Amino acid sequence: MHPGNHVHIISAGEKIHTAFPAMLRKLPGISRTYVIADGETYGTSSNPVVEKERAATRHAVEAVKDLSSSLSIPFARETVFTPVFSSARSVLTKIRRENRKARFTLDLSGGPKEMCMALFSLAPWLGGEVWTSFDGKIPQRVPVPDRDIRAMMANVNYQTILAVLLRNRPVPLNTPDLPFVARQYLFSQVWPYYIRSRERKPEPGKPVPLYKRGRKPANNLSQQTFSTFMAQLRNAGLIEEGQDSGNRKEKMYRISSEGETAFRFFAGPAANSIINQMLEVV
Prior knowledge:
- By secondary structure, the protein is α/β, with parallel strands linked by helices.
- The chain is built from ten helices and nine strands.
- The longest helix is centred in the first third of the chain and has 23 residues, at 48-70.
- It starts with 5 loop residues before the first strand and ends with a helix.
């Protein structure tokens, strides 16, 4: 997707077909539409009231699809299941990967409360604007907090550290408490993939060290630089720091929920093999 594309994401509800035309007038230039529906919307219920509500939502989604088609706007429907937050995160991650350079807006006028809350909490990671139209007619923008993680994650070394921490979580993930990883082990796993942002000039008279795997001497990762990386990730809330119970001097690290979200949204699969591997898993 080239710069200038505008992706509009809608949480599926009974009145989105009346809100969508208003959003098109308010936000001209929408070039792609996604509707995110709760998984139960496309199931059947023995309760006639519930089934009526689901049918109305399905009808509204089809109406948005028909209007998008009439305007030559590509349309796609995604579905969120329980657990809602992780499912919504996966859906938005997929949408962002398909539209990396697009502008994102979200209309959270309809749909179950839990799904809307999940989408709202994920909007800053997407860099998206949140809109709503409670009466289905007058769209209003909802302010969301700023999160300046995108620039930080542009440094591939942060992506590599998070990928290593993700690689060491238990599979299947049957506990909310991820394991801590020893600092020295983490350093040894990150070192082969380290990339300097600026070339280091060799000191006159000193021998040039040789490294395996075709690495350049300028790429050598120092303990001081690694400590700076870990401090930045910790301060941003992307990792948690602890201590080894057997060795109080040994620091331990694990990825936080925010760190996993940042990795999903901002890691680039072309950066290196370990990042690509973990993106395929998560």
